[in-house]
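Subject: for your reference before the review

Hello V.,

The reviewers asked for a structural picture of the protein, and I figured it would be easier to keep everything in one thread rather than splitting it across files. Below is the amino acid sequence we used in the manuscript, unchanged from the supplementary table.
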Amino acid sequence: MRKLIASVGLTVLLVGGLGLLQSAGLPSAKPEAVGMSSPQLALLDGIVGAAVARKDFPGAVLLVSRRGKVVFRKAFGDSEIVPERLPMKADMIFDLASVTKPVATATAVMLLVERGEIRLWDTVKTYVPEFTPWYGEKGRAGEPVRLFHLLTHTSGLPPYTDAKAAGEKLGDPCTTADLVGLIAALPKESPAGTTFTYSCLNYITLAHIVQKITGQTLADFTAQAVFQPLGMTRTFYRPAESCWADCVPTEVIEGRPLRGVVHDPLARLQGGISGNAGLFSTADDLAVFAEMLLRGGEVNGVRVLSPLSVRRMTEIYPQVGASGRGLGWDISTGYSTVRGDLFGPASYGHSGYTGTSIWIDPEAGIAVVFLTNRVHPDDKGEIVALRSKVANVVAAAVRGR
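And here is what came back from the structure prediction:
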């Protein structure tokens, strides 16, 4: 199996249209230069600052971009309060939690589709032979679960499974293949394609399929095919200890905050590399990724996805239209409050349990990256309503095309 150079800690050179360029994120511009209002965006200081003062969460980094230019980028509050209080910095590295799903896992799956190595119509059983279907009355098997069911959370799998119990059975840490074997045998809660049930188990299964096809872990494959080409030098799984000082800690577990170690229990069980969580990144790197999507799969002369792949990922998938999901991305579900009230129906995004989110509106050409440490130190932070308010303030700042 081909081995990759680890992406952590490397200076990655981006192949641009005019040669080799070191990535420094998107350039900055005054809001008015891209048709936005500075006074309106200044309202973000007040609403995010008030949330920090209320102790809704210790700190945050908020970045807004339009037309490939960063118009707002600011750190708020503290990166940690236990065991000591340290200020947040705008370039800090966050545990993205479920933002991993579209940015890493779904992107990897679509790259394999583009390469002709898999089809979304393929059954999961093709790659995971022990994967069971839903069983109805009299024990009759339902329709087979296909890859697009996993991507859209319509497979019938339950939302989660107990990581401690899985570890006792499989070992801790365990391989993704062994965990997927356990997931495959779980009773399905609904027939394939009929019900939207947000499930981390779908994306753990997809990560296993990516590894089975490529011979590489999801971490290695996405580093080579996505993050390094885009110059996303601070986006990776399992940050090296040399990066931990820049990592925003999450929940305090057994007396110490998790720093540079994934918060999600099932991802930790797999040693930190998982399809549902485990990716770490910065606001600046995610802004580059968002701009790649806004430009139809290409940015700075580097193409990662085809324009049609981006369109299919970011529109409601027709075979499971009632799910409100694209291929990896959230479009119109109960989780879509990140959109706020003003961004349009063509917009899309995703949120993460740790307090992270990204929302992208292709009609306005805007990306909003809002990263918080909501789970630090005791998993009691509140962020849902604020995400909507932030989106509303940003959308209302648009003054022209």
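For the response letter, the relevant points are probably these. The first strand starts at residue 13 and ends at 16. The chain has one domain: 24-396.

Happy to draft the paragraph if you're swamped.

O.
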